[in-house]
Design goal:
Layout: H1 2-25, E1 29-31, E2 36-37, E3 41-43, E4 49-54, E5 63-68, E6 78-79, E7 92-95, E8 101-104, E9 110-113, E10 124-128, E11 134-138, E12 147-150, E13 158-159, E14 165-168, E15 173-175, E16 177-182, E17 185-196, E18 202-207, E19 210-217, H2 227-231, E20 237-241, E21 246-251, E22 258-263, E23 269-274, E24 282-286, E25 303-304, E26 312-313, E27 318-320, H3 323-327, E28 335-337, E29 353-361, E30 367-370, H4 376-382, E31 388-392, E32 396-400, E33 407-409, E34 415-421, H5 423-473, H6 484-489, H7 500-506, E35 515-518, E36 523-528, E37 534-539, H8 547-558, E38 569-575, E39 578-584, H9 591-595, H10 606-626, E40 630-632, E41 641-643, E42 649-651, E43 658-660, E44 666-668, E45 671-674, H11 681-686, E46 688-690, H12 691-707, H13 723-732, H14 750-763, H15 774-781, E47 801-803, E48 810-812, E49 822-825
Parallel strand pairs: 25-33
Antiparallel strand pairs: 1-10, 2-7, 3-4, 4-5, 5-6, 7-8, 8-9, 10-11, 11-12, 13-22, 14-15, 14-21, 16-17, 17-18, 18-19, 20-21, 22-23, 23-24, 25-26, 27-28, 29-33, 29-34, 30-32, 31-32, 31-34, 35-36, 36-37, 37-39, 38-39, 40-43, 41-42, 44-46, 45-49, 47-48
Length: about 850
Amino acid sequence: MMLIGGASLLFVLLLLSCFASEFSTATDFVSWTRYLQDPESITSNGSVFRMGFFTPKGSKYRYVGIWYNNYPEFNPVWVANRERPIEDSLGTVMISEDGNLVIMDGKKDVVWSSNVTTSARGNKTAHLLDTGNLVLHEANTSTSDEVIWQSFEHVSDSFLPKMKLSSNARTNVSVMLTSWKSSSDPSPGPFSGGINPLNIPEAFVWNGTRPYWRSGPWNGQIFIGLASMESVYLDGFSLQNDNEGTFSLTYKYAMAYISYYLLQPNGTLLQVYSGEEENDRGLPWSSYETECDVYGKCGPYGICDPSKSPICSCPRGFKPGNLEEWSRGNWTAGCVRETPTNCGSSNSSKRDGFLRLQKMKVPAFPEWSFPLENECAKRCLSNCSCLAYAYTEGVGCMSWTGDLLDMQKFSNAGVDIHIRLPRSELGKARDLKLVLAVTLSVGVVFITLSVLLLWMRARKRRVTKLQETVTSDREESPIISSGKRIQDNLKLQDLKLLSFEELSTATDSFSSATKLGEGGFGPVYMGKLLDGQEVAIKRLSRASDQGLEEFMNEMVVISKVQHRNLVRLLGCCVEREEKILVYEFMPNKSLDEFLFDPVKKDKLDWSKRFKIIDGICRGLLYLHRDSRLRIIHRDLKASNILLDEELNPKISDFGMARIFGAKEDQANTRRVVGTYGYMAPEYAMGGLFSEKSDVFSFGVLLLEIISGRRNTSFSQEEQYCSLLGFAWTLWNEGNIMALVDPVISNNSHQIEVRRCIHVGLLCTQELGNDRPTTSTVISMLNSEITDLRIPKRPAFTERQITHDTESSEQSEGTRSINHITITTIEGR
């Protein structure tokens, strides 16, 4: 009896273990034989997302949703039965008889269905993917053309990476976000968000059918109505047109982060963001930052400026449409013209002109006219229906024939708008300016003149001498590769000037105790200003041959750019013989301090290294493509990557940088500057530099970050002349993972690490034309481009041995001992 009982128990245990094995290895799907019963759930293959039953806080109902598995504090990103909640705790998710994915309550009533026409259920499976997409497809197939239904085409309130928001004006078919009704009620609320496909595409949030917020037009890289996108590159947005009327918006993000966009019940679009560390979590972007972000806040022709009080005003030639309501703070009536336009007049002195408004968010619903800037004003003026025009690169010439709605004044970004005005209004403005100028100058001329003269003398002593010295000393301008127009726009007076006494006090008279390091420019000190702010102070060494030109470059270049992955210049000092730059302080110093230190490198796990790689590349993309100036760094290396307190990377040292003109792709110099091991071959040997030469330097740096070794760390006795040669050999042997630093050799990241090595080899190919652009590198790193080309041989992978007839010793063509920046000046 005991024997029989034991055998039965053993059989039951074996049977249960089989079922447990099945469920433990296949927990990401629902099939006709495997369903979910409340409170069960399934998890995507990589444990990124979970799908199951939940009850919102403050609610008594049950819903089926998808949420981030490791971030339970985030709301579900997708809800199935939004309109019909389950009133009991007996819900079931299963494949129905007709092959649909359905949710049933305890009464076996269907409360939600995928509702597609399909065959019988026997061969259907619903998989939860690591993207958060729930896909219903034929079992035993995984190709995209077999997909029957997917949640990414029926979105809720969350815009996830790789999801598409789309709209087609001809078919009126769209995929849009819909807000929850409230924080406790997932049913569809009044707000929706998506793409407006008419004319020039923009992202919109609607309250019912009325616009509530908009992004401004897409210029191929950013939405120009978002001021934050001008100064900080937001992750990976892409907008496509299939040429059949459908516009689709997608975005990607760095693999080391969680990031998605949430349309809140109040109509605000938020970027929900989280790194791997607890203190990385937050909401870095919101569509509602000021009242001016509400669509049409100031009515037709009204200009909203959040820095002014009241925030709404009328442009020149316009007045409030309802003065009484306007004075009460109700600006919805907007502004009306004071004088009608005079289009078509044969008298040239009475013809209309244009009022220019600078740094503006362009009005809603622009019409695209043509790509040529010089024709923009002429064509608008010749068309009496054209009320305004604007031009921006990436879009071309935009014009408006209806009321100008949702204009906003920006402080640092925006586009110039030209509004049609009668000549009489433009003339009034000039006359008024003249009267005011004369009246004011008579009253204050003596005081103003005396103060101005004193100020100019002091300023001239501190700045002009430096400019004259650089102009007379340098053989070739290190700043501007071409274009007097650019040079004229770079004003040193934009920088905050600090006194030498203040900086001396901040550094305890530049004592050795405050010294952080020294480069070709001169020593760098840590200091604390009078307001308590910690800063890094770079002092030009009087013995430096190249420091003076570097000083000018740093002041001109870095004062004109702003990005989260670029070090910020706070001010400078030009007194007597002193030339000093003041930066934000980076407590973790430079990347090489961690990367090549056998102890500190342990702090750089894979997620932090990828975060650094991605941040460097985004900073480089900003310099190359997204900033108002196109800048080639020319000295990208580990010691020029600074790390803040959270190990976020910031590109520094712009002493060697060159600014390109708008139509320049490359330039040539007789003065080759840079660092051995990081310089592209065409630059090191021919003086030719471009975006692709910076990409080469980035590729070397990427491989250093992955391997934990300097490119130039190989001795003459070793088989390989550089890290590139070592990586290339391992690549051809099919053993590329041997390159990886043991600190990050965890198998869980192997796919990402392999991809990054592949990208590094593509970046360091010998010919510049073979290397990807910086924007392509971003896409490859973040898996937007899945099929990577096979790399060709990198530069500097073979030793060049020459024999000296007077010596039996061999000398190598590859020299890579010193890691400081070099300057090579050929004879004039």
